[in-house]
Design goal:
Two copies of one chain form a homodimer. In chain A, about 30% of the residues lie in helices and about 25% in strands. Chain A is an alpha+beta fold. In chain A, strands 1, 2, 3, 4, 5, 6, 7 and 9 form an eight-stranded mixed beta sheet that branches. The radius of gyration of chain A is 22 Å and the shape is globular. The first copy, chain A, starts with 14 loop residues before the first strand and ends with a helix. At the A-B interface, α8, α9, β13 and α11 of A face α8, α9, β13 and α11 of B.
Amino acid sequence: MRRAVRERSIEVAGFRFGAAGCGIKPSRRPDCGLIVADVPATAAAVFTRNRFAAAPVILGRERIRGGRLQALFVNSGNANACTGAQGLADARRTCRMVAERLGHVGRPRRPLSTGVIGVPLPMARVERGVAAAADDVSAAGLWRFARAIRTTDAFSKVAVERVRVGGRPVTVAGIAKGAGMIAPDMATLLVVLVTDAALSAAQARWLAREVAGGSFNELSVDGDSSTNDSLYVLASGLAGNPIARRHSELGGLREGAVRVGEALARMVALDGEGATKAVTIEVSGAPSVRAARSVAESVARSLLVKTAFHGADPNWGRIACAVGYSGVDFEPPQVSIWIDDVAVFRRGAGRSGTAARARRRMKRDEFRVRISIGRGPGTARMITSDLSPAYVRFNSAYTT
Amino acid sequence: MRRAVRERSIEVAGFRFGAAGCGIKPSRRPDCGLIVADVPATAAAVFTRNRFAAAPVILGRERIRGGRLQALFVNSGNANACTGAQGLADARRTCRMVAERLGHVGRPRRPLSTGVIGVPLPMARVERGVAAAADDVSAAGLWRFARAIRTTDAFSKVAVERVRVGGRPVTVAGIAKGAGMIAPDMATLLVVLVTDAALSAAQARWLAREVAGGSFNELSVDGDSSTNDSLYVLASGLAGNPIARRHSELGGLREGAVRVGEALARMVALDGEGATKAVTIEVSGAPSVRAARSVAESVARSLLVKTAFHGADPNWGRIACAVGYSGVDFEPPQVSIWIDDVAVFRRGAGRSGTAARARRRMKRDEFRVRISIGRGPGTARMITSDLSPAYVRFNSAYTT
């Protein structure tokens, strides 16, 4: 669904952002984004678990080990996935181009990539894009960068929080790309969090894991987890806070970063290709967190549930059915289901006379489905979308 | 998709079939089916693993233990699932009605049920349906029975094979109901296999497992496994063959029954709500059968793959991506993918110039996707359908 977002100017000390269109996308829209750190930033990342990791993911895993990064180039319109040795060579060459253009030769930088799987990168165009994006960088360019990394996204995804670390004001800004092919264990997402906080490399890694685990791993738009999912954290250190001695001193930063992550995750769910609703599935009373998660995933991924969401059809039978085949053990008479505040199913049986009220909740852009399956301590949450005919039409004709 | 099936008359010695419309379906179409065995038949069954097993499944599990069955009543239009104690009482009462009407009091019979989940059975109508179906039974009524158990099925599903057991000609006929909500571990299927072979109860159980494991567990239309899935085998013994001493003597019967099962499974895939294609996913070279099955399921369930099937889009990147997130370990350079005979992806890289030929294969009603992920011994097969806008439209407005 389209969503109007007011583009407030966002700046994060120590970072400049650039964008360019180099013709990788046939539409001629911007398809190259570049983030440049004025000083080498502390960096960490979390990547897709897909075994067909794309070339930029393979390279990213290798290079993030150093914990420092000074430039991050993103092209959209081509994922450079399943492109074999050539893809990896192209990713390395892209890195070299960026370094040469920025005068960073010998310093760490990182390419990301997104778009159609399996098509080799058009390197002549990439070279032009690197040059143009490098010429474009400015401290005020964050929204331009956000637009450039979009593929099928209906809108740009940006969120920002201001928190305090060690007594100093700190900014955390997040930029995300992602719509279709979203699943747990990372949506098809490219997420970059930039902050002016000073962090150690270990703290940046911790923050990346906290943000990934707390929001993006709860997303399930179509159950397909992609070859390119990457979440980067870049910290310039220009806020001037002293490096924290322990993670507990970074509670405020963690909360701010997770809020940024959650805001971006909801934007991605609402932007699911052809999606009209973002639905949060909350499971409680499971024997364990793992069991709760299995139930939430089973419901969030069910085509019959997602089509019922689309039609605002309070068909709790489909939800109960998906709970039933989740592989989790429970006693049917202990299961209850709510649509927002409407208890449609109590202790194993449907409640008559609730359909009209539940339907009104389901006509909203966002609603919750709460499922209690017993008295255990396990809880979990998933964010999903409805499944519309537009999704199918859109995805039936993607490369053609 | 609609499919013309020539309704050849099928008779199986020892069985009579009846149908009636009693108003459970608002459409007034036939909604009650009854199979009567002239002598108590040897019987076995395989049921859904869904924890919300419907009342007829709960009752069926309990009563099948005796290994004999003389009547099987099926109503469509109401699943009697998630209906609690009332549902179970209604299922028991339906059994009693059937027994009284047929003069079988004290003998074993079995109810099945299918349709909308969560609505209590309208017992007054069921009583009329039992009476009318009992009056209707005849040896030639198999197709009438097949029509009566349909819910959203676009066509009746019947298959028959003639084989020899112990030197005697034997008939195996199968009747299935199923379209939407199909997943492995039994499609939302009601399948009844009737044969005039003489079998022990243990042989009937073995045959039911062989048929379920070899065909219906390979079906994945929308990944939702239902509350009511049941597969029954009824054997009248009237073919007069001697009871086999070991399963190996029943190889011909097993093959015939599995062929009946496969034919019915393909009919169900082609009848997937809004489906236009039946696609067989074949995986080889996996470390184990279990791993091969995970890969096949991951591909068969991917929305992006199923929408690409609908658009005849040879987007092997989506197939590779689903292989990649299946959780199975493999080396990307060892993976190859074929669309029928067209190798679109060889040893980890796409093959250019194959798209047009692959697209022609994908425009057919049925095609295969073969995936080799290495040199292991594990193979698996799944039958799936494409995902069309019609599926979503249909399922967005099911109870409304």
